[in-house]
Amino acid sequence: MKRQERAVRDGAGDTVFSRIASGQKMSMERFSDYVAEIATEAGFNHYLLAEFPRGDRSGFVSNYLVGNWPQELVNFYEEADLFYCCKLIAALKRTAMPVFCDNPPFESAAANQENQQLTTLFRVHGLKSTFAFALHDMHLRQYVFVFSGDRVRLTRAEAMEHVFRAMEFLELYGQQNPPELPTESLSSREVECLRWSAAGKSSEEIAIILDLSAHTVVGYLKSAMRKLDSVNRMQAIARAFRYRLL
User: Fold this and answer.
1) Helix (H) / strand (E) containing 76
2) Residues 10-32: pLDDT tens digits?
3) Among residues 152, 176, 200, which one ends one of the domains?
């Protein structure tokens, strides 16, 4: 067995096999160029890298990172507001494997009049078949890679190479783009109270669990809300999850 194949089999993290040096600094333009290279090498004309849509940020443009979709297509898709509920995202939520679609998968999973118009528009711009997959970086932020064009389904080896190249990209992208953190650190007690609050416990119940007074628990939660710049507990919990504090 070849050394590289053995290393891949054993899960070795030897950077000798990475096409990107881990300490290499890259601009956002270079990041875009690298994703473009991945697309070109696999025979795709169009590419898109976006953060996986979530409840508090579901729009297309707000999640868009790099890509070469025609501006007309970007504008139309943002106005249609279908990214979070399109067939592609629905498919990626059901599997950890890459998906290949012979038809544009960007229309809504629900039948509506916009679907046919969208499919036609994507085809006019050359986005006929699509290969896509979801990956997360070392900070557990999830992304969707989308490559479109006019090519046949990738072989297993091609798909594996494609996904591995994207993993290399995310390794460096994650290193150079650390997650946003609260301006003020939360104490262990504040995090503990938020965690129990997220589990549906009231201040009185949390007080019993932690052997504290209800007044003290409320104080911890208010402090956590202030540090997370939140107006209520639910928003504080959502932001704590986003910051990976819970």
Assistant:
1) helix 71-80
2) 444 444 344 555 556 677 888 99
3) 176
Position 181 in a domain? no
- Looking at residue 16, which CATH number applies to its domain? 3.30.450.80
Q: Which two tokens stand for residue 109?
A: 């999973």
Q: Which of 125, 157, 121, 144 minimizes the C-alpha distance to 46?
A: 125
Q: Identify the CA nearest to 242 among candidates 228, 227, 221, 231.
A: 228
Rounded Cα distance between 38 and 166, Å, is 8
Decide if pLDDT at 99 tops 60. Answer: yes
Task: Say whether both 25 and 79 belong to one domain.
Answer: yes
Q: Taking a C-beta distance cutoff of 8 angstroms, is the pair 147, 39 a contact? A: yes
- Taking the C-alpha atoms of residue 50 and residue 146, their distance in angstroms, rounded to an integer, is 8
User: What are the pLDDT digits (tens) for 149-160?
Assistant: 999 999 999 999
